[in-house]
Amino acid sequence: MSRRLPETQEKTYLVAPEVPGLPSIGGGTWSGFRSGTALVHLVLRLGTIAAALANAWPMTGWVQRVGHKNVAEPRIAEPALSEGGGPDVFSHQLMRKMLLPMVLAVLAYGALLLYADAGAITRQAAEVPGKVLVLATNLAVSNYVVRFFRWQYYLRCLQISVPIYDSALIFVSGFAMSITPGKMGEVIKSMLLKQAYDIPVARSAPIVLAERVTDLGGLLILGGVGLLGIAHGTWSAIASFLMVGVLFALSTSRALGTFAINTATRIGPLSRLKSKLLDVQESLLELNKPSAFALGVALSVVAWGVQCVSLSVIASGFADVNLSLQHGLLAYSAPLLAGTLALIPGGLGVTEGSMTGALQSLGGAGATPAVAAAITILCRLTTFWIAIALGFAALAIWRSRRDQGEG
Fold it and tell me: Domain containing 382: what range?
């Protein structure tokens, strides 16, 4: 027989934690961030239930012997293959792997609706002009175009030649796996290259790693620029820019990377990861020459920068919300980084909660909890969920083409 928690205990999850020296909820720069923290806390509590119901996301299996050296190959459990040789996007195996992200998505958005009142969120979202959403969606699509250019550049660096249409279809198919922790499930692109052109997975998998590293660098730069626009954010911005420099050094210098890995793995729990980290470094060095790293980060800044602008565009559709472009950089990039580094599928819950809190802090008096939650939901729909839908559509097209080819 289930036991109902006392009412005060149930509400604990919805109240932002008090922080000594900070103003209470309802005022001050930090109030929104604390509200977002409470929301994230709620989602993570519920997420533990989801994790118990679904299998942990498989992220094991790292090294494949190629020639005379080990090349890192991070991969998720491979989806079932259709008779035509392509991934069966409707297989029971792949659908089961999507269980945890889907449960987390329901919990994340359910928590948002609970936190800010579903009716108020619906009313606020309904007032947004359609042209605002169209512009925001177009900006999101431009992000995909820039990232596809980067994908093509990395393929050329590895001397992998693929017809442009197939390359685009493979690239967009990777969006379906954006819901995996750290987007590392996008290694499915390497699997499709293997199935269609017999290109070893270990040869193209470093591209996925390079994409994630340069995305991290681009988001750190955007977040640093955003931090320059808030009070007392200068030193945090400098730290963000310095982290990009450290990332550059570790990604392009074998000696520095090896030294950092050897130093970090001296700690007991990390020692068993040493060989895997060295293999990852070996893969990154193949692509991340200084010029390639710089171009990859520059393209990431452009790609994710337009999605930051997309957030500001959506916010402009709400009365009394004043989110500048600079503040939009921070309100989008910081939650995205938090969700990625949390290694939760799709960053679900962490990203939404953090973005809602950031919008309350940076969006002015009009950014009430309901408004901030509505902006967050619309932003994620136009930048994240549309991409996943496109990814599954591309996978379905790929499967259909492969089946017809085999037939």
Answer: 30-406
